[in-house]
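Re: the 197-residue chain
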Amino acid sequence: MKHFTTAALCLALLPGPCAAAGKAGKTKKETAVEKTVYDFTVKDALGADYPLSQLKGKVTLIVNVASKCGYTPQYAGLKALYDKYREKGLVVLGFPCNQFANQEPGSNEEIQHFCRLNYGVEFPVLGKLEVNGKGEDPLYAHLKAKAPGLLGTEAIKWNFTKFLVGRNGRVLSRHAPAVKPEELAPLIEKALGPENR
């Protein structure tokens, strides 16, 4: 019995098929690809699929927007950022949301008209979605998990919360509604820089 135990111990320590399988399993787990923004598909204003994979290689600013909010004038700042940096690879994505004091009650069509008429918006303003709760869009669940807010809370607190996403689809930072779009210019320039290509 003693000899058997010793032999079994020696076999266990030798690199064999079992040990190799264990190593292979670990390696596979270690190389598991982490989800990025590019793994999600949302809806555009017409209800068609809008795969975010089409933005690969771009820097993206994702914002939950509303037409009847004190921060609504930030549309002008978002447009200015888009106009200034779009040729360098910036995309701004607006996601209308009516979860905060019903400040985005209109239809997708009405929202599009409002954005063009009042702010001359040319960046994509996509379909209405929910950013919190049971009906939250999977994209927002991902954004909030990757960049929690103040004191680690994940919930979006109000309209015009901003997420900056790098060229690799990973969330770089989260910014409160009170942060003006123009304040993000240095971070956007850094994300667009040659070292991040």
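Residues 56 and 167 are 6 Å apart (CA to CA).
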